[in-house]
Amino acid sequence: MKINYHKKMQEIINNLSHKPRLLLHSCCAPCSSHCIEELKDNFALSIFYYNPNIYSQEEFEKRLLEQKRLIKEMDLDIDIISPEYDPSEFSDISKGLEELSEGNARCYKCYLLRLRKTAETAKNNNYDFFTTTLSVSPLKNAEWLNQIGFELEKELGIKFLPSDFKKKGGYLRSIELSRKYNLYRQNFCGCIFSKKD
Question: Where do the DSSP E strands lie in the chain?
Answer without folding.
Answer: 21-25, 44-48, 79-81, 129-132, 159-160
